[in-house]
Write a structure and sequence with these properties.
- It is a single chain.
- With about 70 residues, the protein is mainly α.
- The chain is built from 1 helix and 2 strands.
- It has a two-stranded antiparallel ribbon with strand order 1-2.
- A hairpin with a 5-residue loop joins strand 1 and strand 2.
- The chain starts with a helix and ends in a 5-residue tail after the last strand.
Length: about 70
């Protein structure tokens, strides 16, 4: 009986910690979305994409035909 009680307590504790962790992450994502929305409203952030005539102009293609992306490891 003691072992089953301990196991039940450990399982409930783990799920409580995980739900708290997910709750904090959810709250952070919600606050981030509010901040981004505020930034868009006041003009700090511009959601429109930059359009170029040919999107492949900004990438280099090596002799093997692979695309080299700038600012990527």
């Amino acid at each position: 009986q003691r072992l089953s009680g301990l196991f039940r307590t450990v399982v409930i504790g783990i799920f409580a910690l995980l739900s708290g962790f997910c709750g904090v992450n959810g709250l952070g994502l919600f606050l981030l979305s509010v901040r981004v929305g505020y930034g868009v409203l006041i003009g700090e952030l511009d959601p429109t994409p930059v359009v170029t005539k040919n999107m492949m102009d900004k990438y280099e293609i090596d002799e093997k035909g692979a695309v080299n992306l700038p600012n990527v490891w």
